[in-house]
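@channel sequence for tomorrow's demo:
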Amino acid sequence: MTDWLADDVAVVTGGASGNGRAISTTLAEHGADVVVADIQKEPREGGDPTHELVESEYGQRGEFVECDVTNMDQLENVFDAAEALGGVSILVNNAGITEDTQFLDETEDDFDRIMDINVKGPFFAAQFAAERMVDADREGSIVNIASISGIVGRGNGVVYSASKGALRLMTYALAASLGPYGIRVNDVSPGVVETSMTHDDLGMFETDAAEQYAGRTPLGRVGRPKDIGNAVLYLASPLADFVNGESLVVDGGATNSHGIESSEDE
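structure tokens (generated this afternoon):
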């Protein structure tokens, strides 16, 4: 494996399970020490805790910090833990929640919870990280995990789409704000990825929805967490030194091919 990230300390929110677990281990595989920030240390899919895997499988330092990203004190604890490892240089805002709710059934509590976790959390995590990087005169990378639902609206997830659209535009604004300090900000926008969240929270893999989605995807499958980990690795690595304020869509070509497909069918 390359040592592209040998001098880096990464913070991954929601890093214990699913995409966050794959992101954490992929960054460690290429040399980063990793602070896993999550509400629980046990992976939803089972197995060793992610921070332990970072150490046992990849020989990097791993730390777990219990963190609800809407809690400012807990967020600050995360970046204090990163300072103890040498200081954050990579932040991955992966923590987030989704929904399968019709618009007329959405409540104020639904709205507040989704926007707090998916927008407020990444905003202040980025602020904490940027403050540490700027104070240390340290260049770095922030990668937000958005969604294709922030590009193409989803009718059974209006608040979710709004939150991921906000995160995508926040990415562009942060890139403009932090670029002069040598801090790059980009996002990864996944399509459907097979994780515990899509299994258990959305129930996608208990119906034919995932098969239908895969059938509409040029590459013929849904995403895997490692696909997201690899995309984050690219954006965090020296390979992307001149990439700033961009959205990397990781969906097998589904989003940009649906329009062509439908027009041919008409």
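heads up for whoever presents: Strands lie at 9-13, 33-38, 62-66, 90-93, 140-145, 183-190, 247-250.
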